[in-house]
Amino acid sequence: MRGMQALIFFGVWLLCAHSAQAADAVAPRVLRVLTYNINALPSPVKRHKTVRLNRIAEILKERRAKGTQPDIVVLQEAFGSRCDVIIEQSGYKYVVRGPGRKSGKNGRGTPWGVEGGHSYNKPAKTQKFMGSGLIILSDYKITNPVFTTFGGKACAGLDCLANKAIMMTEISIPGLKEPVKLVTSHFNSNRSAKAPGAVRLRAHQKQTDILAKFLSRTTDMQAPVILAGDFNTKLPVRYQYFREEINALDAAEICLATGMSCALGDQTIPSEILYLTDDKQFYRSGSATLLTPVFIERNFRESIEGRALSDHTGYEVHYALDTRDNTGK
């Protein structure tokens, strides 16, 4: 009898183990991606009160407790160790930081640049007083991170003080045949850069050129790609050039065009996700994974001590995931 009980117990255990493995292999129905410029400029440039960073961390922690947390978070202007509270409290298993103040090459030592012969393999110039300020947080495994810095010729004004960059990682999501390639960046600001308009525009277009070449060398049309960041594209001439070069869909345009199949958050209006914003998300589906935006929200709107958490709000997009064969069916 004991032998029979043991056999039954083993069979039940085996079934449960198989079910757990099967559950792990099933793709989530929706992938939630948040991009957020947290405006944590270092002192004395910005006396950003730690209490606001603490509240951002608390919000992410509270959402995790409810099971509604973004699966992936990309942060910009996350300068300094006080931003670590977001990493430590939000509960994300995987974290990748962008290049620091002296980083001048990507993680694999591959040169990137506007011109084919130009290399960023040398240390960044001495005028870089801050790093990139980029951080990626993910509940799903991050592999193959790579980045490129913009360098001195692709910046304008005060933005040249930071070692601004593009960062890409592959996100391995259970049930998908291919990883999702996630790309984030923080492009040159406009008037706050304190440089002539023509110089600012030229720098932004050079950064767009670098991003386009970076994408062509690190991605292909077979892989699903999400671009989420502060691209500073509110100026129409910037947006138009950016859209024409990156070969990706604007999540907001698709969401608003599909009507009932894509919803907006309660306090979110079309203009603040479409063109009157510097924070954006773009995407393209892969050969085996179809991405479709089904929800967009501007969040992190609350204030503390009469001040907003950041001079930006969060820009969160939920993408429905659908697997398909290589014929596109």
Outline:
This protein has 329 residues and is α+β, with helices and mostly antiparallel strands.
CA-to-CA gap between the ends?
52 Å
Number of domains: 1
Low-confidence residue ranges: 1-24, 105-126
Q: Helical amount among residues, as a percent range?
A: 25-40%
Reported by name, the CATH topology is Deoxyribonuclease I, Chain A
Q: Could you give the order of the helices and strands?
A: HEHEHEEEEEHEHEHEEEEEE
Strands, count = 15
**Could you tell me the mean pLDDT?**
83
Topology:
Elements: H1 2-25, E1 30-40, H2 50-66, E2 72-78, H3 84-90, E3 94-97, E4 135-138, E5 141-149, E6 165-172, E7 180-185, H4 197-218, E8 225-230, H5 236-246, E9 249-250, H6 251-258, E10 263-264, E11 279-284, E12 289-299, E13 303-304, E14 307-308, E15 314-323
Parallel strand pairs: 1-2, 7-8, 10-12
Antiparallel strand pairs: 1-15, 2-4, 3-4, 5-6, 6-7, 8-11, 9-11, 12-15, 13-14
Helix pairs in contact: 2-3, 4-5
